[in-house]
Amino acid sequence: xxxxxxxxxxxxxxxxxxxxxxxxxxxxxxxxxxxxxxxxxxxxxxxxxxxxxxxxxxxxxxxxxxxxxxxxxxxxxxxxxxxxxxxxxxxxxxxxxxxxxxxxxxxxxxxxxxxxxxxxxxxxxxxxxxxxxxxxxxxxxxxxxxxxxxxxxxxxxxxxxxxxxxxxxxxxxxxxxxxxxxxxxxxxxxxxxxxxxxxxxxxxxxxxxxxxxxxxxxxxxxxxxxxxxxxxxxxxxxxxxxxxxxxxxxxxxxxxxxxxxxxxxxxxxxxxxxxxxxxxxxxxxxxxxxxxxxxxxxxxxxxxxxxxxxxxxxxxxxxxxxxxxxxxxxxxxxxxxxxxxxxxxxxxxxxxxxxxxxxxxxxxxxxxxxxxxxxxxxxxxxxxxxxxxxxxxxxxxxxxxxxxxxxxxxxxxxxxxxxxxxxxxxxxxxxxxxxxxxxxxxxxxxxxxxxxxxxxxxxxxxxxxxxxxxxxxxxxxxxxxxxxxxxxxxxxxxxxxxxxxxxxxxxxxxxxxxxxxxxxxxxxxxxxxx
Amino acid sequence: xxxxxxxxxxxxxxxxxxxxxxxxxxxxxxxxxxxxxxxxxxxxxxxxxxxxxxxxxxxxxxxxxxxxxxxxxxxxxxxxxxxxxxxxxxx
Lengths: 530, 91
Description:
The structure holds two protein chains of two kinds. By secondary structure, chain A is α/β, with parallel strands linked by helices. Helices cover 30% and strands 26% of the residues of chain A. In chain B, helix 1 crosses helix 3. Chain B has a single domain, classed as Non-ribosomal Peptide Synthetase Peptidyl Carrier Protein, Chain A. At the A-B interface, helix 10, helix 15 and strand 27 of A face helix 2 of B.
């Protein structure tokens, strides 16, 4: 059958083998394909009965367990798009995201209910489903077991309805850091995601016997690969929650215990397992494929990994959220030559992607020269949610083809494809997460003692990237560094929190009276050398 | 005990709070729950403590509620060191 909706993958796998295990979480809970199909159908029916459907968005703020997967497929089957939000991030940021995309309903654990949009937007929600079964202390709350106990088990959305245009209907919206201080929502259609997943089937040939890791949180775009590819092939996906994901010893044990076959994560996670995970004592011979991406994998560590896991094929996967998870891939050779010192490049475009390297004025650069990578094709997002200006900046039409400007500087060589060479703007990546330094500045400006703030990043051999905040405070109000750390933790996800705070009398200025970031970069180097 | 706390304090100051006055990092300042250090920082502190004091920490020792303050970490170090000495003496 032609798949036009992501929930078709589940429907088909459940039809083929309803008793096969679809998803297992770290708490030991698991669901078969039959159970996942039935529960997500019941949740969709509940949402449908409340009037939630195509054209709507439903927020999901849940810890990473089997219920989160029921929630994702329940929302998709209702016809709505899911908007996953980091349950561990500050409530204020989550609330701004859920308000921005005008959710019609919310599925959350009780601890995250302070993310419900304020005022009318919150009052208008068609439903709030909470996953822990305690008495509700706010109106319009339905408990998980009740929502799933819906008497109408008929699937409310006819997924094969030819009038359901997957090309335009949104599957999910993922928020990434925004330079103006407000995270921006990348919208992805069913057609975008299906293009990517179907290509992965050919490229990686997974089977129902595979056991996938699901390491990235669901609000992070690489999660699409693990979840939907696994479900499509009737395989089993093992959910790794935040705390386990950051604990290399336990993570290595989890991987070995469940005999995972397809592992995908950032290099940081793999390096932490190499350093602290006692990988040598665990039998990890089940791993047949390792995908990594989001940052550079230093060759020293990659070589160690290859020696420990000789049976695994290693792939460098590259792609911004706007191009759906992956738009280029490079396969690491089965034996890394001893004299190789350069990290492996991001490789060649996926078959459905067009790729162009352009200079800042849109002119094509000569082969081998550095330029900005632009990507086209059926996996490219229709745009940011309600951000016309940013859409105009990032997406453009050239010779009748729509392109996304990744902002990533690359260069091409015929043997290895694209090599990533950095950024020219103020976006940095840390542990795979995108960070706009401007968003950190905006948060700092909200602090009552801060008069002026400038945030810079510097490449760091040990940590990947170090972020420093230069602050000029109002007279006699200089907060301590500890106060600033605690303040940032209340405003920003932990990966965005600056590593260093430098208080200064005044920030250096250019001749046009703008903050002189170049001069600050010099100060940053001097401070770091201390 | 004071020596242990001071060693841990100096490491955290140097690694995560360069420029901070040592007086502001008290024995009972929450580290992980406050966001002063993140979970990766927790691993780094644990690894430092293991090397510095020649002990081994298990997963429970480094859980947020037992690794959150300098006084908690120091108490764990003392307990582990004592257990290790006893073990050595028994051998």
